[in-house]
From TrEMBL:
Signal peptide: none annotated. Residues 70-251 form the IclR-ED domain. This is Transcriptional regulator KdgR. It holds the Pfam family IclR_C. Gene3D superfamilies: 3.30.450.40, Winged helix-like DNA-binding domain superfamily/Winged helix DNA-binding domain.
Amino acid sequence: MLSFDEHRPTSRVLDILELLASSNEGHTLTEIAVAIDAPKSTILPIIRTLCHRKFISLNKMTSRYSISINAFVVGSSYLEDLNILNIIKEEMQYIVNQSLETCQMGILVKGDVLYIAKIDSLEPIRLVSFAGKKIPAYCTAVGKALLSRHSRQQLHELYPQGLQAFTPQTITDFSCLYEEICLIRESNVATESEEITNNVQCLAVPLCKDGQVIAAISVSIPKFRATPEKMSLIRNLLLASQRKIEQIFSTVNVDLLTFPS
């Protein structure tokens, strides 16, 4: 919906670019008009200008428009100024702003989660943690997200001494852990309730490129604030950020996210 201070023609330009940037197949003029709720006669001059300026292009065989070279050039100039970690932190900050809960990012180092970024909630009661902290991956939501592409054999190899209990809720059975890993592959969301810290629940999503888990982000919630509505909001926020981040992963060199293992 157009807000009171937005310039309608400019908004339509941005709507068209955002629509085409999120599509692999492109869209026809009619599909664009329907998607952004604008008359074809109104957006046709915009489309023609964007084509002329090479921000979008037309496939004459299919009559579909798609994103073109100059849009990529503009986007690349942004990525040159920000490394991927900073982009992920922007998404994490948005999640915190919307949920009012702490968001963390971690990578897998052997069998542990290494937390490399954290955005704190402003709530007086919140998770106490810090970037640089390491925790066994099997008992955290972010860790389970990082393990979500591992086989049963790989899990045994990561933890040859077995799964140590940190609380009464910690999973200590490999079969139970693997069953949960399989569920995470299906739902794309990892959960954890008091498995490492009493009275704290977490949700997390893996961040993947070409089927490989690169990192994961999580949100931690004190149990007394973990209402169904709050958990649903956080799940949706995490999945939306996951889609945005993985789209960036698909277009850039993820060597920027190479960390020690």
